[in-house]
Structure formats: C-alpha cells, structure tokens
Amino acid sequence: MVSYKEIGLVNTREMFAKAIEGGYAIPAFNFNNMEQLQAIISAAAETKSPVILQVSKGARQYANQTLLRYMAEGAVEYAKELGWENPQIVLHLDHGDSFETCKSCIDMGFSSVMIDGSHLPYEENVALTKKVVEYAHQFDVTVEGELGVLAGVEDEVSSDHHTYTKPEEVVDFVSRTGCDSLAISIGTSHGAYKFTPEQCTVDPETGLLVPPMLAFDVLEGVEKELPGFPIVLHGSSSVPQDEVATINKYGGALKAAIGIPEPWLRKAAESAVCKINIDSDSRLAMTAAIREVFANKPAEFDPRKYLGPARDNMKKLYIHKIVNVLGSDGKAQ
Ligand code: G3H
Ligand code: 13P
Ligand code: ZN
Question: Is residue 332 assigned to a domain?
Fold first, then answer.
C-alpha cells in the first residue's frame, strides 16, 4: 500500500472546489506514453495549471498500470525540475470498470478513481459506486461516479444513443454513494467521430460543420439539484480541423471527424463543470506531427526525430486547452 501523498500527488477535492468558485475547469488529459506525459507536465508547469493525469483501461493494457503509476511519480519530480514549485497533479483512473480495478489503483498510489457504472441498472450503479467510495475514502482518495450514458463506445460498453443524465436522480445518487464528483451525459461522446455530418448544420461563414447543441438545459437542471457539486464532462475533444487536414494531407484517411466546439466547452467550464476530459485531440496532434515528418523526411528513422515534433505539437495543444478553453492557467502557483 503506497499513499499518493508520499509521492507528491493530490486528490481532486480542493482543486474542484476552487475551480467551481473560480469559473474554470481542470484539464484531465489521458496518457499512454512518455512523450504524452512530458507534453502534459511541461504544459501544466509552464502555465501553472493544476492537471489530472488519466489512465484508461486501454492505457493499462498498452503501457502497464505499474509503469504508468511510476511515470506519474516521476512526473511530480519533473514538474519541480521545470520550476513548478508546488505541482498540483492528480493521478486518476479513467472509466474504472470494477471494484477490484479501483482498489488496485488506490493501493498503488492513484489519488483519484472513476467507477463507471453508467451502463448498469440504477441500483447496481449505486451499490458499486458506494462500495468504491467506502474503500477510497479510507485513504482520502476521491471518487468520480457517472450517471447517464454517452453515445458511442464507452470502453467496452456500446450504445447507439445518448441517455442524458436525469437531473431528478442526481441528489439520490450522490447522497447514497458519497461520490466526490459526477460525470454526466449532455451530448458529448468519446472519440473523433462524435456526430455524423447529417446531424450537423453548415456554418455559412466558415463552411464548417456545426454539431447539434449540447443539452445545457440538462446541465442546468443538475446544477440546480446539486448546487456547487463538481460535475465532469467526458468526450470533450474538439477534433481540431487543422490537425485532421494535416493527417489527411500526409496520407491519412479521417473522414468527417467532428468534435465539440471549444466555445461550448468554455461555457461549460464557467459552470459547475470542473473536470473536462480530453484524449482524442492529443492523439490527433501526435499523429499529424508524425505523419508530416514521415512524408517530408522519408529517410528519417531515429524515433526521436518524429516523436520529438509529436511531443511539441501535443504540448502546444495542451497549452491552448488550458489557456483558451478551460481557463485553468495560473491556478496552481
Ligand atoms: O474513455 C475513453 C478514453 O479516450 C480512453 O480510451 O481505452 O482507448 O485508452 P482507451
Ligand atoms: P475524447 O475522446 O473526446 O477525447 O474523450 C476522452 C474521455 O472522455 C476520456 O475519459
Ligand atoms: Zn471518458
């Protein structure tokens, strides 16, 4: 049993309270490899932004949970080396699918876990989330629960349509489970294909596709029921069209990749939404940079020569999100 406190990590409690009060959101960036982690930490250190490092099931399978946990410990020291005296870094399990997975992460030094029972019948979701909370709180680890189902693939859980969170359920769920934050469904979804072109309208000025508006009325309903309670938005990548264009220019085939417009996320960040999950945008930034090097320098075979530009492009993206979308810069001096 290792306490996250011994390795310089923090949980989400104070971070979220400040974010709600200040009208901004904390970035929750997924990481699977060293370059992503370096880019996240150097972006957070440069902007003095609190940050959540997220480890998904796919990341645990790809990179190994233990290795990722030690990389996060290294990240705290790296942040200090970069001149960030008091780094505010959370190590969070993204979409935990069982009590055992959550327990294993807590025992290993994660400071926050998500238990995703959103696909379960309501009472089973309550029981599972409560069990995780009871274990986690003994070690001052914070827990994110989820109510409502996101369209698309939610890890192993497939669903073709959104089931928006029901505001009338949230008080019962939060009070019976004791969870510290709640992920809700208001029309976002995972991945780079969040909407079909048929669901969108064309912006007459830019010619770009505009997706259907998020269900801000559901968010407002939740806020009314749970004033000041931390809300989480999954599936919040914006799918930058310049990165998509670069990928396609250099041999990629991403057709009609559409994300959430950034001004909508800015609006959400100003509300009780205090954690915004971004993974796909980082994948796009990495892939665009690598494809460009491969296309322009076909003789190059030193991985540092393409992973380096990929890291730089991801860092630029993270800084943009922190400063221009979430507004978390300067909040962790
Ligand atoms: O929740 C979805 C995240 O983007 C993680 O996806 O399991 O493929 O790493 P992943
Ligand atoms: P995106 O696929 O929109 O980046 O969402 C990531 C996410 O919600 C991770 O939990
Ligand atoms: Zn998610």
Answer: no
Asked whether residue 305 is assigned to any structural domain, the reply reads yes
Which member of 94, 180, 279, 281 is catalytic? 94
Say if ligand 1 is within 6 A of residue 22 CB. no
Which pLDDT band, with edges at 50, 70 and 90, does 161 fall under? Answer: low
Rounded-to-integer distance, Cα 63 and Cα 75, Å: 16
Q: Is 235 in the pocket of ligand 2 (CB under 6 A)?
A: yes
In short, whether 190's Cβ falls inside 6 Å of ligand 1 is yes
Cβ(182)–Cβ(144) below 8 Å: yes
Which amino acid type is present at position 109?
Answer: G
Task: Check whether 138 has a pLDDT greater than 70.
Answer: yes
Please give the Cα distance from 332 to 289 (Å, whole number). Answer: 30
22-64 per-position pLDDT tens digit: 999 999 999 999 999 999 999 999 999 999 999 999 999 999 9
Task: Tell me the backbone φ, ψ of residue 265, rounded to 5 degrees.
Answer: -70, -35
CATH of the domain at 110: 3.20.20.70
Is the predicted pLDDT of residue 160 greater than 80, yes or no? no
Which residue from 280, 287, 317 has its CB within 8 A of the most atoms of ligand 2, so it is best to mutate?
280
CA 301 to centroid of ligand 2, rounded, Å: 31
User: Residue 185 has what pLDDT?
Assistant: 97
Number of structural domains in the chain: 1
What is the whole-number distance in angstroms between the Cα of residue 238 and the centre of ligand 3? 14
Query: Which range marks the domain in which residue 118 is found?
Result: 4-326
